[in-house]
Amino acid sequence: MDLNNLIDIGVNLTARAFEKDRVQVIERALSHGVTQMVVTGTDLAHSEAAAELCEQWQNTLFSTAGVHPHHASDWNDKIALRIYQLAEQPAVRAIGECGLDYNRNFSRPVEQRRCFEAQLELAADIGLPVFLHQRDAHSDFMAIISRWRDKLTAGVAHCFTGTRDEAAACLDMDLSIGITGWLCDERRGQSLQQAVEYIPLERLMIETDAPYLIPRDLAQDLSGALQPRRNEPMVLPHICTALARHKNIDMEEVAASTTRLARDFFAIEN
Known about the structure:
alpha/beta; TIM Barrel; 16% strand; globular
């Protein structure tokens, strides 16, 4: 196992930022050793688009289906039914991105909690893992997860940016943890850098969350290949190397472990 067989567990390939060159973005990822990617569903439209994109890239792209807390106010029975239907498609491997985000409160917290629990119930019913989002809502997030965890097959704290104590709480709930280029931010990433030293390697996966969260420490040769301020899944090996450095573990071992967990979590074959 080396850096030529990685899985990006969270990439927003249906985002408008990739509208003009989506195929080239996927091909660049493949040429940089990112052999499979999970396309994030953030609302009904993007969940549908993600599943459709996966049909064009079978065994390369997989997806999630869900409603991000920003869009929680849109949740209704019709959307719930459609997410349920999408979850029956072979490429859809998790419910989400779902959770709580009190940082901006684009939807009211009460709407977020209602939407979150509805998706956890759906995931428990279908038997799919959950792709989780949490920002500035740790206490409420963990309280809800604690009520549902024994009914869920698995869960990953996607794009984790929290502290060691928050990581410990996630681990206590038997959640996996997704690491992005936030780890590479010398300004905001210090808490995460301390947390990853504590998190067992076998509980970690890696993701870009592209087109967001481009690592701030990219070498010029790689950053020069990217559009300004746009992240791409081709950057995933850089995140893998950064994680290895902060855990003081050989990067091939990190690559092997994160890929193995991703394959198991999302039921992805080699």
